[in-house]
Amino acid sequence: MFNLYHRLKQLVRPLREKQLVAAGKQKAKAALPNWAAIIASNEALWAESLSKAKEGPRVLMATAIGGHPQFTVLESALNVALTLRGAKVDTLLCNATMPGCQRAKIAGIKPPALADGKLKNVFCAGCMATGKTVFSVPGLDIFQMNEHISDDERARAHDISNSVAVGGIPGYTLDGLPIGEHALAGALRYYGVGDLSLEPEGEPVLRRYLESSLLTAFCITRLLRDRKYDVVVNNHGIYVPHGIVSAACRNQRVRTASWNLAYRKQCAIFSHSDTYHHTLMDEPTSDWENMAWSKDREAEIMNYLKSRRQGSRDWIWFNRDADDDMDRFAAKVGLDWSRPVIGMLTNVVWDAQLHYPANAFPGMVDWVMRTIAYFKGRPDLQLLIRVHPGELAPPGGSTVSRQPIAEEIRSTFPDIPKNVFIIGPESTVSTYAAMDRCDSVIIYGTKTGVELSSVGIPVIVGGEAWIRNKGMTMDASSADEYFRHLNTLPLGERMPQAVIERARKYAYHFFFRRMLPLPFLVPVPQSWPPFEVGIEKLDELLPDVHKGLDVICEGILNGSPFIYPAEELGIHDRQK
């Protein structure tokens, strides 16, 4: 039963969502690529490439969601670039097959459309039209999901999704595939929450995502069997449908490459075999710890990290025009900088809700509450919690968190401990300036741990942060281990210089080598996607033109590492 607090939240949400949709409609859209015109610049080259590709490696671009321009713009460019390198590339599109997907968000869909299985009546037409426009490349095939699912499979997906006990959905598997895990992640993303129990239509929405997961599994399994693909490319590698696509490929021992836009402008990040959310924690340290290092490399990464405080070189930022006056902030809230202050950085509750075997806690909310309870018993310390500004949606994004962590804290702790201070997501207080003044910082999954360790701030990791397992942070794989780390606080000193240098080498690897530069993705201010393909001639996608594109294509086709040799070639935006 909802208490009064949560009833008020339910009343406020519709207005918040309407405001977000209205704001989104005002955003300009970047131009979609016209591949027919680009190919016309060298029709002979294209015809020759198509002919050679017939016998080349078979690639499935498992886009599915054709109306997501953030991904389809680059994926369509990869289709062309891979064809020029001799690959036979097909594209998979949903064609309104899934009753729930990654692109669907409650802010833009009037309930109960998705819960009732009527998403295609209110949401899918524009998505289908965009996909058809972007991927209509002369000579390349487009497959529709509904053409590769039998009537019996549709009936089976419907029956299973309506019969599995709701409590069993998150752990539901089919033929070894984590169907329920990604269905739950998709439903949480749809709502922008970390817990469906407070959503009146949470269960039927979860069941529609379960149905979508099953339909995706049936479709991709059939395609892998019939078409014999060598490699499948998809964005994110999680949620619905891409998490299921990746899992099905692993099940059939078909290579995958999952990707997303990177944080730096004009860059993307790719990973083999699994979502980068997982692989970045487990990649071998040998990928970076022995690379050539110099004062110039160190200066490059430190200059970039400094730029992140204003976001001048990034697609998405949260700290622009921030207030660095920490003394004024402390006086306002009663924080005493003369006593030890421990920083704490939260994540957005709903984001990338996946299973991580090494997690010390079942989820981010539990981590926050147990940490506050710990500090309640440590009056010698002050805890400064910086709520992730992304709860209010990033610039260009459209997902406002419907489960704000500050509200969850106040619900659990009506009287917040006197030594606990909260900087809300709407605050202009600089995250960096605040953490600079802390003895140490506790994180769950934020990439900010990479930056903090690079300036010597000790970091304790309680969740799935990418800085884990790199030999520079205090990592916890159990709650007991986590609290043992907290028992050592305050530390009273910065990290040793040798560890700081190691952290800077990893930061260089993370931001400059794992983030692959694609200069032809031209930024377009105040638009979504935040870029367009700045290509006029087909020859611009040939090998040896853009090294970052070469790394991506070679990784997709040959399985080579998705690592850009920045220490040898330089940083394409070093002067920006």
Notes on the protein architecture:
The chain contains 21 helices and 15 strands. With 576 residues, the protein is of the alpha/beta class. The radius of gyration is 24 Å and the shape is globular. It has helices at residues 4-25, 35-39, 43-53, 69-84, 119-122, 124-135, 151-163, 179-191, 202-227, 242-251, 276-282, 295-307, 326-333, 364-376, 405-412, 431-436, 448-454, 479-487, 497-513, 547-558, 566-569; strands at 58-64, 88-93, 141-144, 231-235, 255-261, 267-272, 341-345, 382-386, 420-423, 440-443, 459-461, 474-475, 515-517, 521-523, 531-533. Helix 12 crosses helix 19 (497-513) and helix 17 packs across helix 19 (497-513).
Brief synopsis:
With 576 residues, this protein is an alpha/beta fold. Helix content is 41%, strand content 12%.
Please supply descriptive tags for the structure shown above.
576 residues; alpha/beta; 41% helix
Average pLDDT, rounded to a whole number, is 90
C-alpha Rg (nearest Å): 24 Å
Oligomerization state? single chain
Q: How many individual β-strands? A: 15
Strand order of the largest sheet: 3-2-1-4-5-6-13
N-to-C terminal Cα separation, in Å?
54 Å
Q: Helical segment tally? A: 21
Secondary structural class: alpha/beta
Percent range of helical residues: 40-55%
Which segments are poorly predicted (pLDDT under 50) over 5 or more consecutive residues?
A: 1-26
Largest sheet: 7 strands, mixed
Strand content: 5-15%
Which term fits the overall shape?
globular
